[in-house]
């Protein structure tokens, strides 16, 4: 059997060859124009699928970066608000010390009270601070409404106790701003564990200036009453919560009273029957502490005992304000730790992004030298095919017998 090579078949093969070369050239032109060697998934299905997955990783890293920026903004605003609040607390202590001296007259006391009220209002304004998007900083997860409300002279917290966590790097979370209740409301009194106060009916000049735990013994947390039994001599007895005498002693000016793991500093001269109560620390909000301080300064004492009572309230308020200031410093330290974690997360994201983008570049980026070389080669092959096709068109039997 003889195979027949027809003119039509030769034309068809030549056209197919030229079209194939033209298609290859078009594909190379697209690669060169886009800089990508994967123009469509059929070019390399495995690499295309892997690249799509890596694109998602890059997009996720970008979103984590936005999360980090948002959290960093809120934590920075929290730091600024707490720094301002701490300055206000320092000023309140200064005013309390100024008011606790015998120098200020009624006019000066009124000016001090007016400034303290302004400080209280400023604290409330800071507690209701917003971020750049209008969300309240200290409302927990309920950040669409003001977390602190003042009604009837009393400030209450209406936010929640939730502290959001924000993902800022793969598998790494940081805490958002603290709930306001942790900063402004639940502040421990005294030294944070033990507190003490002078009884309201004291008649002497005994002034409780400090209370703390004594490191040499453990306090069991029970209530104690230090009751002076003799004026002038400083004799006292200590009663437990059941009224039983657990210790006795004589108070010497300049020395602390240490009993049951608690240390008290009492200045002045307590009168017989005067009492100082020791209890476990409770929680009090800074606004109530400011109310107590302002109320003490507005009490207008008429007698020496009244004056001592006011001074004891001032001392108690100053201790609580100091505790509130320490609480804010702790909150700032927590926020600072989260800001440091955000910086570390940025480094982790950048390192991951470099690795992922390097892999993507290996999968997608075109080798221009190789592509241009192939382009020239295909162009030369196309021109050769066109030349051959042109010569085939000129071939004819009549030319042979002419």
Automatic annotation (TrEMBL):
Listed GO MF terms: structural molecule activity
Superkingdom of origin: Bacteria
Subcellular location(s) per record: Bacterial flagellum; Secreted
Coiled-coil features, chain-numbered ranges: 61-88
Cellular compartments per GO CC: bacterial-type flagellum hook; extracellular region
Keywords from the UniProt entry: Bacterial flagellum, Cell projection, Cilium, Coiled coil, Flagellum, Secreted
Family: Belongs to the bacterial flagellin family.
UniProt-recorded name of the protein: Flagellar hook-associated protein FlgL
Species of provenance: Stenotrophomonas lacuserhaii
């Amino acid at each position: 059997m003889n195979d027949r090579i027809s003119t039509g078949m030769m034309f068809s093969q030549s056209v197919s060859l030229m079209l194939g070369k033209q298609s290859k050239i078009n594909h190379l032109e697209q690669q060169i124009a886009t800089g990508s060697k994967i123009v469509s998934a059929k070019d390399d299905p495995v690499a295309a699928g892997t690249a799509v997955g890596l694109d998602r990783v890059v997009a996720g890293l970008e979103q984590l970066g936005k999360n980090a920026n948002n959290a960093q903004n809120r934590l920075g605003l929290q730091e600024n608000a707490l720094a301002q609040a701490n300055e206000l607390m320092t000023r309140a202590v200064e005013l309390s010390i100024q008011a606790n001296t015998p120098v200020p007259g009624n006019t000066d006391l009124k000016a001090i009270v007016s400034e303290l009220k302004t400080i209280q209002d400023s604290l409330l304004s800071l507690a209701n601070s917003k971020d750049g998007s209008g969300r309240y900083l200290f409302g927990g997860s309920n950040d669409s409404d003001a977390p602190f409300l003042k009604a009837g002279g009393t400030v209450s917290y209406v936010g929640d106790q939730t502290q959001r966590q924000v993902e800022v790097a793969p598998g790494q979370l940081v805490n958002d701003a603290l709930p306001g209740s942790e900063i402004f409301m639940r502040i421990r009194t005294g030294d944070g564990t033990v507190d003490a106060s002078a009884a309201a009916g004291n008649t002497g000049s005994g002034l409780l200036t400090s209370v703390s735990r004594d490191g040499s013994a453990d306090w069991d947390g029970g209530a104690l009453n230090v009751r002076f039994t003799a004026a002038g001599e400083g004799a006292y007895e200590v009663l437990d919560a059941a009224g039983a005498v657990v210790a006795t002693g004589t108070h010497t000016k300049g020395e602390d009273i240490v009993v049951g793991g608690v240390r008290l500093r009492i200045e002045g001269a307590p009168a017989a029957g005067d009492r100082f109560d020791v209890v476990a620390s409770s929680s009090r909000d800074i606004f109530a502490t400011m109310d107590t301080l302002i109320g003490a300064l507005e009490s207008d004492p008429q007698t020496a005992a009244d004056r001592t009572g006011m001074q004891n309230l001032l001392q108690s308020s100053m201790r609580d304000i100091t505790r509130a200031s320490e609480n804010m410093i702790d909150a700032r330290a927590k926020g600072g730790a989260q800001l440091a974690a955000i910086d570390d997360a940025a480094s982790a994201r950048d390192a991951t992004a470099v690795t992922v983008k390097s892999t993507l570049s290996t999968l997608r980026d075109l080798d221009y030298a190789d592509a241009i070389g192939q382009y020239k080669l295909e162009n030369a092959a196309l021109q050769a095919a066109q030349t051959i096709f042109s010569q085939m068109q000129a071939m004819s039997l009549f030319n042979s017998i002419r």
